[in-house]
Design a protein that fits this description.
eight-stranded mixed β-sheet; about 300 residues
Length: about 300
């Protein structure tokens, strides 16, 4: 266990103890640095940082997890996949609230009806969460007609994120899949729990990679969990069949923006070596003007002939 983790857990225990004491004595607790602080999420497209430029001089540990999540209210429920990414710095140079805002602005931007991002600064740690519902859940799982299920994590993107820092590495990855059986973990995890029995005769499989236990963190988006889907996935999780889809949110600063359809349809004069006609009348317009002039000349000539005949 690292010194940073120990200090953070001690801080949480102390905070809980103080809160309990305050309840017993009736004394209000003052605001403390160990409270959770929401971090605003930007909607604009971020600018890709230069490799190694973020948080210079700090050693950053990154922890990633993929879980399923249920958001329920009195009138509705929404099943989601949750992507959680946590950034911790080694003592004594912990991540500050301002640096957490910088991390969120750079790597967690974007909005969408099926994408709910959030960021929190808590216990000197920066925590990014994204909740994917509807068809966007297929950024994480695929399910074919035979019932074969696969789960992946966006490790290519997160590897680029880690490379943006002066000194950062992904030290832990944990993924889990519910309502599958005959599960298997790929990519040699440091620990795994296969087909854990749950309620209603359902099962869960969990895979974990920790560098401290000798595991190599995957760097590609290849499937990490596979298995056979259970009916509960359809009836309870409201899951759907379908292949993986590209993860378009959060906005990836390392990917150039895709041209719109109108931009694709507009020829580039420089590439086609054709002269531009901007500011000049079109060929159709010139033909129309010429025809109108010819008609006026014919009418005028006819009128002149009639006038001369009447004079004589």
């Amino acid at each position: 266990m690292t010194m940073t983790t120990v200090r953070r857990r001690v801080a949480r225990w102390v905070t809980c103890a103080l809160a309990a004491a305050a309840c017993v004595t009736g004394v209000a607790m003052p605001a403390r640095a160990y409270s959770k602080t929401p971090v605003p999420i930007a909607s604009a497209t971020p600018t890709a940082p230069a490799a190694g430029s973020m948080l210079a001089g700090k050693n950053i540990d990154i922890r990633v997890s993929i879980d399923e999540y249920l958001r329920a209210t009195a009138t509705s429920k929404e099943h989601m996949h949750q992507l959680h990414v946590e950034f911790d710095a080694h003592y004594p140079d912990e991540v500050t609230a301002e640096e957490c805002q910088q991390i969120a602005d750079t790597f967690w931007s974007g909005t969408g009806p099926e994408f709910k991002p959030s960021a929190t600064y808590a216990y000197e740690s920066c925590e990014l969460d994204a909740f994917y519902s509807g068809q966007l859940r297929h950024a994480f799982y695929s399910l074919d007609e035979s019932g074969h299920f696969q789960l992946r994590a966006p490790m290519e993107y997160l590897t680029q994120v880690a490379a943006s820092f002066d000194n950062a590495s992904i030290v832990q990855l944990k993924v889990s899949a519910t309502n599958i059986r005959n599960g298997q973990c790929n990519a040699s995890p440091s620990s795994q729990s296969i087909d854990i029995a749950q309620v209603a005769d359902t099962h869960t499989t969990e895979c974990s990679w920790k560098t401290g236990k000798g595991a190599t963190i995957p760097t590609t988006d290849e499937p990490l969990i596979e298995g056979d889907i259970e009916d509960f996935f359809y009836t309870y999780d409201v899951g759907t069949n379908g292949p993986f889809v590209d993860m378009t949110l959060p906005i990836n600063p390392f990917t150039p923006p895709t041209p719109t359809a109108s931009e694709d349809a507009t020829p580039n004069p420089a590439s086609t070596n054709q002269p531009t006609t901007r500011g000049a009348p079109s060929t159709g317009l010139l033909i129309g003007i010429g025809a109108a002039i010819a008609a006026l000349l014919l009418v005028g000539t006819g009128a002149l002939v009639v006038a001369l005949r009447r004079r004589h």
